[in-house]
Specification:
alpha+beta; 4-stranded antiparallel sheet; two-stranded antiparallel ribbon; elongated; binds 2-oxoglutaric acid; binds fe (ii) ion
Length: 113
Amino acid sequence: MVFESYGVERNYDSHLRSTTYLLRPVRYRAPEKNESNAGGSIHTDKSFVTILRQNQVQGLQIPARNGDWISVDFPPEAFVIIAGDAYMAWSNGRILSPNHQVILHQNKTRYTQ
Ligand SMILES: O=C(O)CCC(=O)C(=O)O
Ligand SMILES: [Fe+2]
């Protein structure tokens, strides 16, 4: 769909053949008492695209235009798609690879993959 919308569907097969896939399960331990910034640091993804799912413990945040961090809350049965740096380069900057971070607020272990 994306390749079609850019009119480069002829490149789709070669792109797919050169693609590698990585399944990366992550366990975020529950924050300690008074630990305010447990989670992961601010970053962009270096990949083409990240497909993310999580258990019921929220934590993903992205910056709004005014710089405030907003929570991206989603249920365990949903997926969040994050464009990576490779996608941004491939689209000549038309698709943004967003900064994001994980901040845990609940006293529960978070699992993502
Ligand atoms: O756990 C999350 O919600 C985000 C994970 C993430 O940013 C990553 O794996 O690159
Ligand atoms: Fe990420």
